[in-house]
């Protein structure tokens, strides 16, 4: 157990073990798709493009859209 | 599925995948908590400026003889519930993206504690997703921006965020490559230099958009942008500070009493 050996020496912290890329990838894809969907509804729905008709979504997130820096109107 | 199980087998796929999933969930939770704080900031410092801008817009419309815009959602709801929900969605979204980057970066950026890495990445996220795009296309209050150009403005805004991500990724990857040959210090300087040059190039080539009416009150515009940037600083610094301990708890051994995070 080189890990416990090296960590017992003061000032010699072991390099942390990285999470394998193939273990992160599915979660990364899921997380990024979810994030883009959320950002789309905050930042662009019923502005540049529109999936839902009307202006209710735009009006509801209006102040947030402006203050978070998205283009509006 | 206990903490002990996944720590005991960190190298196996199941344990690592669980770890990545837990990091993502905690990133989104941290984003939501940070967004609550950002909402409070925006409510106090941002909303007065939004109201002033709307008053200016209404006065302009009245002078031009236009009917006032119908209120589908009342101003009271927009300024409270609407702002809160928008902030929470934004916080959850960037919290998730940030946690994914953290999961990739941890253990690949040298000997850095989870908490320090969390803060470092929050700073990088603020720079990449907010400051660099915002320097080109700063946040604008209501009353600024023609409805006709919303397509162009939205496209260029998201493009500049995407380019900003690319620039940051290129600078980091090149810096890491150079580290073997030049050493950490010089490689970091080269990476920063490359980042500055690519950012300047991007800012110079992206189309300029200026739709601020000539008589728009300058102080309102300035105060609004101050509030917008302040809201982002609250969001990203809270995200980094809250996610650090949460991530450390996922990555550190649950048994044995010694914590990796310091």
UniProtKB/TrEMBL annotation, chain A:
Keywords carried by this UniProt record: Membrane, Transmembrane, Transmembrane helix
A Pfam entry, by short name: CbtB
Residue stretches spanning the membrane: 24-43
Database matches in InterPro entries: CbtB_put
Protein name, as recorded: Cobalt transporter
């Amino acid at each position: 157990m080189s890990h416990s050996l090296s960590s017992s020496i003061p000032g010699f912290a072991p390099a942390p073990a990285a999470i394998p890329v193939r273990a992160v990838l599915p979660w990364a894809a899921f997380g990024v798709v979810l994030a883009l969907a959320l950002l789309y509804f905050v930042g662009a729905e019923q502005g540049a493009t529109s999936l839902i008709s009307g202006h209710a979504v735009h009006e509801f997130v209006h102040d947030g859209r402006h203050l978070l820096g998205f283009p509006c109107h | 599925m206990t903490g002990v199980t996944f720590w005991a087998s960190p190298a196996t796929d199941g344990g690592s995948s669980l770890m990545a999933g837990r990091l993502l969930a905690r990133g989104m939770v941290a984003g939501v908590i940070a967004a609550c704080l950002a909402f409070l900031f925006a409510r106090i410092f941002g909303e007065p400026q939004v109201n002033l801008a709307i008053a200016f817009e209404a006065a302009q419309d009245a002078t031009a003889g236009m009917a006032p815009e119908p209120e589908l959602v009342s101003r009271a709801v927009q300024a409270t519930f609407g702002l809160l929900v928008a902030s929470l969605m934004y916080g959850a979204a960037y919290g998730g993206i940030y946690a994914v980057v953290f999961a990739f970066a941890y253990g690949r950026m040298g000997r850095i504690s989870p908490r320090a890495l969390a803060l470092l990445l929050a700073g990088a996220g603020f720079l990449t997703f907010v400051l660099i795009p915002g320097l080109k296309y700063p946040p604008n209050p209501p009353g600024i921006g023609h409805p006709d150009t919303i397509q162009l403005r939205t496209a260029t805004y998201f493009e500049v965020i995407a380019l900003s991500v690319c620039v940051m990724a290129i600078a980091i990857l090149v810096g890491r490559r150079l580290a073997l040959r030049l050493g950490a210090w010089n490689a970091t300087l080269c990476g920063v230099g490359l980042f500055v040059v690519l950012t300047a190039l991007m800012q110079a080539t992206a189309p300029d958009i200026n739709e601020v009416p000539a008589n728009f009150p300058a102080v309102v515009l300035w105060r609004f942008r101050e509030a917008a940037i302040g809201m982002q600083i609250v969001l990203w610094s809270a995200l980094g500070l809250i996610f650090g301990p949460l991530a450390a708890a996922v990555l550190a051994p649950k048994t044995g009493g010694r914590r990796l995070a310091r």
